[in-house]
Design the sequence.
């Protein structure tokens, strides 16, 4: 398992350091991911705080229910070129807190 952060433009992958420390040290914010064999785990904050992810979720995302937000994030991740390169044969998506 590796930790990853998907920003609007890049996929950062590393081992060890917690996401919050990595974001603070680099001054970046993104979708927190855990990369596993064949699958990606997405941190729930992506749908809980949609205002922090304007490149993923629409402006009115607060009005959407959590299932609709998850669906939009999953569509975004599935279409992500950096993730497609990391998982050329595809990947599953699950969520974590």
Sequence:
């Amino acid at each position: 398992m590796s930790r990853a952060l998907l920003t609007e433009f890049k996929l950062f992958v590393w081992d060890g350091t917690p996401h919050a420390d990595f974001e603070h040290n680099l001054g970046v914010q993104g979708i927190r991911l855990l990369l596993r064999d064949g699958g990606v785990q997405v941190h729930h904050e992506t749908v809980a705080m949609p205002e922090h992810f304007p490149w993923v979720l629409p402006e009115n995302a607060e009005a959407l229910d959590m299932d609709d937000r998850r669906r939009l994030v999953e569509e975004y991740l599935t279409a992500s070129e950096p993730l497609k390169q990391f998982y050329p044969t595809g990947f599953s998506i699950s969520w974590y807190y």
About this structure: The first strand starts at residue 2 and ends at 6. Residues 66-79 form the longest helix (14 residues).
